[in-house]
Input
Amino acid sequence: MHALHSCDLQGSADDCDNFQQRQQIFTILDNTDPTFTVPADITIYTDANCDYDADPSNTGDVTDEDDNCGVGLDASYSDNVDPGNCTGEQIVTRTWYLADNCGNDSIQIQTITVQDNVPPTFTVPADITIEKDVNCAYDADPSITGGVDDEADNCSSGLDAQYTDVITAGSCEGEQIIARTWSLTDDCGNVTVQTQTITAVDLIVPIFPKPADHTISTEDGATCPGVSDISLTADQNNPVGFRKCTICLYRSWPAV
Output
């Protein structure tokens, strides 16, 4: 503690000029703490490598140190870092300290919150067309339609992409459109969403029993429309001598 000493000499004399002198000492002390404005609490964010920069140039510095006696004072600080509520989050408790030459000091606290706001990444599977089976069923498991295997994040690890499906009817009976929404969320709640389209189509040709082949003939003496008449005589193995014709008819049965 700085002390300022002041000496005051006082004396007195009697009628015979006998003189006595005494010294009184005054000590002036400085007990006033220095002052400064602590930087405001602040939130900063991690980068792509989950690092952060809490330098006072980014989080706020002390620029108004003052004291009643001392000059040229400069505040200093120390940090205590604790984990936050999720992977990548940190709570930095910064203690600012300012002392004058007499040992008077001031202490103030600044809280710096480090948060991760970088969303995770992944590659969404390509859109794909799959085929229905004989029962008009399909298998849209990711092992067939494509899965996600490159989940990554700046802070979190071990992430696993999830999906949900919304199924709508396609352009014909049996066709279905699957909108598969893939999502990936890190430990701090940052989420990335991407969509894959899966089209399930029916490519199986329908089947039906074909009617048996049949032979039909005209009655004796009838005319075959669209076919030239053929005259047969008795000596041509036609003892009656009537006219007849043969028509081959090919009938196609479409199945739709």
